[in-house]
Amino acid sequence: MNTNFENIVCIENSNKRELHRAGWIVVDPFTIIENGHLEIENGLIKGVHKGAPKEKSIDHGPGVLMPPLVNAHLHLELSALKGALPFDRGFKFWVKMLLEKREALGDEKLIKAAQKAVKDLFNSGNLYVGDISTLGIIKPIIQDSALNGICFHEFLGSDIQPFFIQKNDAVSFSVAGHAPHTSSPQLLKALKRQSKLYGLPFSIHVAESDDESEFINDKKGEWANFLTSRGIDWSSWDIGSKTSVAYIADLGLLDPLTIAVHVLNVNNKDVEMLARSKAKVCVCPRSNQNLHGKLPDIDQMIKKGIQPCLGTDSLASCDSLNIFDEMAFVGNHYPKLDPETIFAMGTINGARALGIEQLTGTLSKGKKAQFLYRPVKPMNKKDLLQRIISNE
Question: Using one digit for the tens of pLDDT, what is the confidence trace for 300-310?
Fold first, then answer.
């Protein structure tokens, strides 16, 4: 990781008018201004201009002003498990050890590690998050931080209970279903109804593991045996002869307010189904490689019209929560993707997935006055984005 900032600028509650100049400004992946400045007023971007301002301004230097990054899927409550779990003994063993070690640590240690992770996120320019929590301990940590985004409370099993959902300007609260093979169809549909009622995204892990795919398609396998051993009656679930994506589509879960996370074990029809539904897709390639030894087919997604965003998953499956690192990984492992596409995955695509594109994702007029300065020295516009996504 080589994230190098001179400053992160967040101007939210100021009535002052300010001008911020830099050698380069990345307004969005396809709009780059050389030698320009941002006009800020009342905490919002009022304009983006070419040339140095004639009035008094803040000159950040020859580097680049760019939008903050968006980590659309992470689990802050697992931050204390960084480096504590093996990847070479299979996904099921990893999950078993995760649950055991998380319980053994206790809330106090989990909270302390999450607080540190939140500071690290902000200091590395990752200002917006879509956090997934099953324990419900992360909400106050994010509320007390400088991060914005959505806290998703994740549910498993079959109990349908009151869900706390709230739409706010800075941090909203929504719900997530864990996965098609761990949450009953009744629970998943109830969660989706409630989040949709408030106009907030609903998140779900889907098509992540071989066990999930076997259970949903064949109605048997180790996961079926596990559910039965736990006294969970899945006999009424409308599964069999279908993929995980087709199953959640049949449940009515796929629409523009759904974030399908991972999307690893999918076929061409699944990708087409996701594209038609306009559901958002969030990929976590570094985590997928560590846990499953495979990568999502991002090229195919883009070919079908999907604009995926990036998440990191947790520090239990990845060595950082930094989207700069995730973009660099994508650049190294997906040579067909251009820098503009990868930059969009780490910024505006994530903002759209979380439903906050009116606030961030680009440095265009009307967005919040939050931006990063990186002291890069590019040769030209194309080289600029390449250096950013390569984390140089």
Answer: 999 999 999 99
| The token pair that represents 103 in the structure block | 């319980």
Contact 153, 136 (CB under 8 A): yes
Residue 175 and residue 53: Cα distance in Å, rounded? Answer: 45
Return the structure tokens found at 174: 């929504």
Residue range 34-60, pLDDT digits in tens: 999 999 999 999 999 999 999 999 999
Calpha distance 259→201 (Å, rounded): 7
Q: In what order do the strands lie in the sheet with 309-310?
A: 69-74, 126-133, 148-155, 171-177, 202-206, 258-262, 280-283, 309-310
Give all domains of the chain, ordered by start, each with its CATH number.
Answer: 7-67+362-389 (2.30.40.10), 69-353 (3.20.20.140)
Measured CA distances, 304 to 260, 268, 294, 373 (Å)? 16, 9, 20, 34
pTM above 0.90, yes or no: yes
Q: Checking DSSP bridges between strand 69-74 and strand 64-66, what pairing results, if any?
A: unpaired
Residues 6+ apart with CB under 8 A from 61: 6, 22, 23, 373, 375
